[in-house]
Design a protein that fits this description.
Layout (H helix, E strand, L loop, with lengths): L4 E4 L1 H5 L8 H12 L3 E4 L5 H10 L5 E4 L4 E4 L5 E4 L4 H14 L2 E6 L2 E4 L4 H10 L4 E2 L12 E7 L3 H15 L3 E7 L2 E6 L4 H12 L6 E5 L5 H6 L2 E4 L5 H6 L2 E2 L7 H11 L1
Parallel strand pairs: 1-2, 1-12, 7-8, 12-13, 13-14
Antiparallel strand pairs: 3-4, 4-5, 6-7, 6-9, 9-11, 10-11
Protein backbone atom coordinates (compact mmCIF):
# COMPACT_ATOMS: atom_id res chain seq x y z
CA UNK A 1 0.00 0.00 0.00
CA UNK A 2 1.06 3.60 -0.52
CA UNK A 3 1.78 5.87 2.45
CA UNK A 4 -1.16 8.11 3.41
CA UNK A 5 -0.01 9.27 6.86
CA UNK A 6 3.46 10.04 8.23
CA UNK A 7 3.96 10.39 12.00
CA UNK A 8 7.30 11.96 12.94
CA UNK A 9 8.94 12.31 16.34
CA UNK A 10 10.55 15.67 17.10
CA UNK A 11 13.66 15.50 19.29
CA UNK A 12 16.60 13.65 17.73
CA UNK A 13 14.39 12.77 14.75
CA UNK A 14 12.92 15.72 12.86
CA UNK A 15 14.91 18.26 14.88
CA UNK A 16 18.66 18.49 14.43
CA UNK A 17 21.11 18.99 17.30
CA UNK A 18 20.27 22.69 17.31
CA UNK A 19 16.53 21.90 17.73
CA UNK A 20 15.81 23.13 14.21
CA UNK A 21 13.92 21.64 11.27
CA UNK A 22 16.27 21.62 8.28
CA UNK A 23 15.17 23.16 5.00
CA UNK A 24 15.52 19.73 3.35
CA UNK A 25 13.15 18.09 5.84
CA UNK A 26 10.64 20.95 5.63
CA UNK A 27 10.64 20.79 1.82
CA UNK A 28 10.21 17.00 1.83
CA UNK A 29 7.24 17.30 4.20
CA UNK A 30 5.68 20.00 2.02
CA UNK A 31 6.16 17.85 -1.08
CA UNK A 32 4.54 14.87 0.65
CA UNK A 33 1.56 16.98 1.70
CA UNK A 34 1.22 18.27 -1.87
CA UNK A 35 0.86 14.63 -2.93
CA UNK A 36 -2.04 14.30 -0.51
CA UNK A 37 -0.12 12.58 2.29
CA UNK A 38 -1.07 13.63 5.81
CA UNK A 39 1.87 14.51 8.08
CA UNK A 40 1.71 14.83 11.85
CA UNK A 41 4.04 15.19 14.81
CA UNK A 42 4.24 12.45 17.45
CA UNK A 43 6.19 13.70 20.45
CA UNK A 44 6.57 13.45 24.18
CA UNK A 45 6.66 17.24 24.30
CA UNK A 46 3.87 19.44 25.54
CA UNK A 47 1.29 20.56 23.00
CA UNK A 48 2.41 24.18 23.44
CA UNK A 49 6.04 23.12 22.85
CA UNK A 50 5.22 21.14 19.71
CA UNK A 51 2.83 23.73 18.25
CA UNK A 52 5.49 26.18 16.93
CA UNK A 53 7.04 23.38 14.85
CA UNK A 54 3.62 22.38 13.51
CA UNK A 55 2.96 25.98 12.52
CA UNK A 56 6.38 26.21 10.88
CA UNK A 57 5.37 23.24 8.72
CA UNK A 58 1.83 24.60 8.20
CA UNK A 59 0.37 21.36 9.56
CA UNK A 60 -3.39 21.36 10.09
CA UNK A 61 -3.91 17.91 11.62
CA UNK A 62 -4.15 16.41 15.10
CA UNK A 63 -0.79 16.42 16.89
CA UNK A 64 0.27 13.55 19.17
CA UNK A 65 1.71 15.14 22.31
CA UNK A 66 2.65 14.05 25.83
CA UNK A 67 3.62 10.61 24.44
CA UNK A 68 0.04 10.21 23.25
CA UNK A 69 -1.85 11.46 26.30
CA UNK A 70 -3.24 14.41 24.30
CA UNK A 71 -4.12 14.43 20.61
CA UNK A 72 -5.19 17.91 19.55
CA UNK A 73 -5.54 19.64 16.18
CA UNK A 74 -2.93 22.33 15.56
CA UNK A 75 -5.40 24.82 14.04
CA UNK A 76 -8.97 23.92 14.99
CA UNK A 77 -7.81 22.82 18.49
CA UNK A 78 -10.24 19.90 18.34
CA UNK A 79 -9.25 17.27 20.91
CA UNK A 80 -9.43 13.66 19.69
CA UNK A 81 -7.83 11.93 22.67
CA UNK A 82 -7.18 12.78 26.31
CA UNK A 83 -5.78 10.28 28.82
CA UNK A 84 -4.24 11.93 31.93
CA UNK A 85 -2.55 10.07 34.78
CA UNK A 86 -5.09 8.94 37.42
CA UNK A 87 -4.95 10.90 40.68
CA UNK A 88 -4.13 7.97 43.00
CA UNK A 89 -1.18 6.83 40.91
CA UNK A 90 -0.07 10.46 40.39
CA UNK A 91 0.30 10.95 44.13
CA UNK A 92 2.21 7.70 44.53
CA UNK A 93 4.59 8.43 41.61
CA UNK A 94 5.35 11.95 42.84
CA UNK A 95 6.01 10.66 46.35
CA UNK A 96 8.28 7.98 44.90
CA UNK A 97 10.35 10.50 42.89
CA UNK A 98 10.58 12.75 45.94
CA UNK A 99 11.79 9.82 48.04
CA UNK A 100 14.44 9.01 45.41
CA UNK A 101 15.68 12.59 45.62
CA UNK A 102 15.45 13.31 41.88
CA UNK A 103 14.06 16.30 40.05
CA UNK A 104 10.52 15.75 38.86
CA UNK A 105 7.83 17.88 37.29
CA UNK A 106 4.42 17.51 35.75
CA UNK A 107 2.07 19.24 33.33
CA UNK A 108 -1.22 20.86 34.33
CA UNK A 109 -3.42 22.59 31.77
CA UNK A 110 -0.61 22.33 29.16
CA UNK A 111 1.79 24.15 31.48
CA UNK A 112 5.14 22.91 32.74
CA UNK A 113 4.78 22.83 36.53
CA UNK A 114 7.58 22.50 39.09
CA UNK A 115 8.04 23.01 42.81
CA UNK A 116 11.64 24.22 42.41
CA UNK A 117 13.61 25.44 39.42
CA UNK A 118 16.51 23.02 39.81
CA UNK A 119 19.41 22.74 37.37
CA UNK A 120 17.58 19.83 35.74
CA UNK A 121 14.48 21.99 35.58
CA UNK A 122 16.38 24.82 33.92
CA UNK A 123 17.77 22.41 31.36
CA UNK A 124 14.33 21.08 30.54
CA UNK A 125 12.80 24.57 30.33
CA UNK A 126 15.43 25.52 27.76
CA UNK A 127 14.80 22.34 25.77
CA UNK A 128 11.01 22.73 25.77
CA UNK A 129 11.11 26.46 25.08
CA UNK A 130 8.25 27.24 27.49
CA UNK A 131 7.84 29.29 30.64
CA UNK A 132 7.67 27.17 33.81
CA UNK A 133 5.06 27.58 36.53
CA UNK A 134 6.33 27.23 40.10
CA UNK A 135 3.81 25.71 42.55
CA UNK A 136 4.04 25.20 46.30
CA UNK A 137 2.92 21.58 46.01
CA UNK A 138 2.37 19.56 42.84
CA UNK A 139 0.51 16.95 44.88
CA UNK A 140 -1.90 19.49 46.37
CA UNK A 141 -2.56 20.81 42.85
CA UNK A 142 -4.00 17.40 41.93
CA UNK A 143 -7.20 18.53 43.64
CA UNK A 144 -7.61 21.01 40.77
CA UNK A 145 -5.74 19.58 37.79
CA UNK A 146 -5.18 16.31 35.96
CA UNK A 147 -1.55 15.66 34.98
CA UNK A 148 -0.77 14.78 31.37
CA UNK A 149 2.36 13.00 32.55
CA UNK A 150 4.98 13.03 35.31
CA UNK A 151 8.67 13.18 34.47
CA UNK A 152 11.84 12.55 36.47
CA UNK A 153 15.14 13.96 35.22
CA UNK A 154 18.60 12.88 36.40
CA UNK A 155 22.01 12.44 34.79
CA UNK A 156 22.51 9.29 36.90
CA UNK A 157 21.51 6.82 34.16
CA UNK A 158 22.07 3.76 36.35
CA UNK A 159 19.72 5.16 38.97
CA UNK A 160 17.16 6.00 36.30
CA UNK A 161 17.24 2.46 34.95
CA UNK A 162 16.72 1.07 38.45
CA UNK A 163 13.79 3.44 38.99
CA UNK A 164 12.29 2.47 35.65
CA UNK A 165 12.50 -1.23 36.51
CA UNK A 166 10.97 -0.74 39.96
CA UNK A 167 8.11 1.36 38.62
CA UNK A 168 7.38 -1.11 35.83
CA UNK A 169 7.32 -3.95 38.35
CA UNK A 170 4.89 -2.05 40.59
CA UNK A 171 2.79 -0.14 38.04
CA UNK A 172 3.41 -1.78 34.68
CA UNK A 173 -0.16 -3.08 34.47
CA UNK A 174 -1.70 0.33 35.19
CA UNK A 175 0.68 2.95 33.79
CA UNK A 176 2.81 3.55 30.70
CA UNK A 177 6.41 4.03 31.84
CA UNK A 178 9.15 4.85 29.35
CA UNK A 179 12.33 6.82 28.72
CA UNK A 180 12.36 9.46 26.00
CA UNK A 181 16.06 10.15 26.56
CA UNK A 182 18.59 8.24 28.69
CA UNK A 183 18.04 10.75 31.51
CA UNK A 184 14.25 11.34 31.16
CA UNK A 185 11.89 8.88 32.88
CA UNK A 186 8.24 9.50 32.02
CA UNK A 187 5.05 8.14 33.57
CA UNK A 188 1.71 8.32 31.77
CA UNK A 189 -1.72 6.78 31.67
CA UNK A 190 -1.57 3.20 30.33
CA UNK A 191 -3.49 4.37 27.25
CA UNK A 192 -1.07 7.25 26.64
CA UNK A 193 1.38 5.93 24.08
CA UNK A 194 2.17 6.96 20.54
CA UNK A 195 0.77 3.78 18.98
CA UNK A 196 -2.69 4.10 20.57
CA UNK A 197 -2.76 7.81 19.75
CA UNK A 198 -1.79 7.12 16.16
CA UNK A 199 -4.61 4.60 15.90
CA UNK A 200 -7.05 7.29 17.05
CA UNK A 201 -5.93 9.47 14.14
CA UNK A 202 -6.08 6.67 11.56
CA UNK A 203 -9.58 5.71 12.73
CA UNK A 204 -10.65 9.35 12.55
CA UNK A 205 -9.48 9.67 8.93
CA UNK A 206 -10.24 6.07 7.89
CA UNK A 207 -6.60 5.22 7.13
CA UNK A 208 -5.31 1.65 7.31
CA UNK A 209 -2.31 1.08 9.59
CA UNK A 210 -0.49 -0.41 6.58
CA UNK A 211 -0.66 3.06 5.02
CA UNK A 212 1.17 4.67 7.96
CA UNK A 213 4.87 5.50 8.13
CA UNK A 214 6.23 6.24 11.63
CA UNK A 215 9.68 7.76 12.18
CA UNK A 216 11.48 7.92 15.53
CA UNK A 217 14.64 7.32 17.50
CA UNK A 218 14.00 6.45 21.13
CA UNK A 219 12.29 4.05 23.51
CA UNK A 220 9.04 6.03 23.49
CA UNK A 221 8.86 5.56 19.70
CA UNK A 222 9.04 1.76 19.83
CA UNK A 223 5.29 1.17 20.01
CA UNK A 224 4.37 3.36 17.03
CA UNK A 225 7.25 2.10 14.90
CA UNK A 226 6.12 -1.48 15.52
CA UNK A 227 2.46 -0.58 14.95
CA UNK A 228 2.87 1.32 11.69
CA UNK A 229 2.92 -0.42 8.36
CA UNK A 230 6.33 1.12 7.74
CA UNK A 231 8.51 1.76 10.77
CA UNK A 232 11.58 3.95 10.23
CA UNK A 233 14.40 4.38 12.74
CA UNK A 234 16.96 7.15 12.65
CA UNK A 235 20.63 6.23 12.33
CA UNK A 236 21.11 7.78 15.78
CA UNK A 237 18.26 5.70 17.23
CA UNK A 238 18.59 3.35 20.20
CA UNK A 239 19.58 -0.18 19.24
CA UNK A 240 16.22 -1.59 20.37
CA UNK A 241 14.43 0.85 18.04
CA UNK A 242 16.59 -0.09 15.05
CA UNK A 243 15.89 -3.76 15.71
CA UNK A 244 12.11 -3.37 15.25
CA UNK A 245 12.24 -0.88 12.36
CA UNK A 246 11.63 -1.82 8.73
CA UNK A 247 14.16 0.74 7.53
CA UNK A 248 17.02 2.73 9.07
CA UNK A 249 17.53 6.17 7.62
CA UNK A 250 20.38 8.63 8.18
CA UNK A 251 20.72 10.62 11.40
CA UNK A 252 18.75 13.67 12.46
CA UNK A 253 21.73 15.89 11.62
CA UNK A 254 21.93 14.29 8.16
CA UNK A 255 18.26 15.02 7.29
CA UNK A 256 17.17 11.43 7.84
CA UNK A 257 13.47 12.30 7.79
CA UNK A 258 13.86 13.86 4.34
CA UNK A 259 15.67 10.76 3.08
CA UNK A 260 12.88 8.46 4.31
CA UNK A 261 10.17 10.64 2.74
CA UNK A 262 11.98 10.78 -0.59
CA UNK A 263 12.53 7.03 -0.57
CA UNK A 264 9.03 5.87 0.40
CA UNK A 265 6.71 8.73 -0.59
CA UNK A 266 8.23 10.93 -3.28
CA UNK A 267 10.23 8.39 -5.30
Amino acid sequence: MSVKLIAIDLDDTLLDSGLRISDECAKAITAAREKGVMVTIATGRMYSSALPYARQLNIDVPLITYQGAWVKNSLSEEVLYYEPVPKKESIEIMEYFKKCGVHYHTYYDDRLCLENLTEEGKFYVKLAGVEPVIMDSLIDALDTYDPFKIMAVTDNERMLLDMELELKNNYGDNLHITRSKPFFLEVMNKKANKADALKVITDHYNIDRKEVMAVGDSYNDLAMIEWAGLGVAMWNARTSVKEVADFITTSNDEKGVAEAIHRFVLA
